[in-house]
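Figure 6 in text form: structure in, sequence out.
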């Protein structure tokens, strides 16, 4: 019986589904918005929201939990280009590829005062090839829309 089990299966086994959702949330952290099917966006949304909640705690334990859930290590080995100095390569990699660093140091502090609802789903319509419902999953801007609305009303 599936009582109280609300996980969307998405036509995949558990390990494949968890890896796919982790990959989608990593892409969301790096690119700030992803386009996918509506069902996948709805499944990835709770994972992304929980990552922001961990990011707001900003502890070593929370970083390790986030790294485990996103299937990346807290400190990943990287391969730099031999033409660049080691420190430059590390800083560039950390700013562009290290999702745990981006999540905890760039994205989560913007949502410090927000109690929830860190992402939004925008429906796009149907895809041409298979008529799947598509959507954009993106971060709600922490500084953007809320403060602009209050300024316009004054």
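Output sequence:
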């Amino acid at each position: 019986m599936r009582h109280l089990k609300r996980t969307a299966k998405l036509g995949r086994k558990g390990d494949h589904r968890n890896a796919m959702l982790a990959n989608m949330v990593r892409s969301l952290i790096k690119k700030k918005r992803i386009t996918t099917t509506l069902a996948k966006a709805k499944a990835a949304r709770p994972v992304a929201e929980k990552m922001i909640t961990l990011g707001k705690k900003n502890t070593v334990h929370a970083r390790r939990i986030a790294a485990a859930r996103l299937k990346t290590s807290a400190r990943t080995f990287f391969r730099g280009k031999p033409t660049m100095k080691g420190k430059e390569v590390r800083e560039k990699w950390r700013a562009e590829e290290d999702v745990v660093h981006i999540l905890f140091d760039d994205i989560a502090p913007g949502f410090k005062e927000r109690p929830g609802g860190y992402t939004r789903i925008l429906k796009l319509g149907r895809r041409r090839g298979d008529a799947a419902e598509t959507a954009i999953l993106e971060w709600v801007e922490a500084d953007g829309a809320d403060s602009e609305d209050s300024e316009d009303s004054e």
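Caption detail: The chain has a mean pLDDT of 86.
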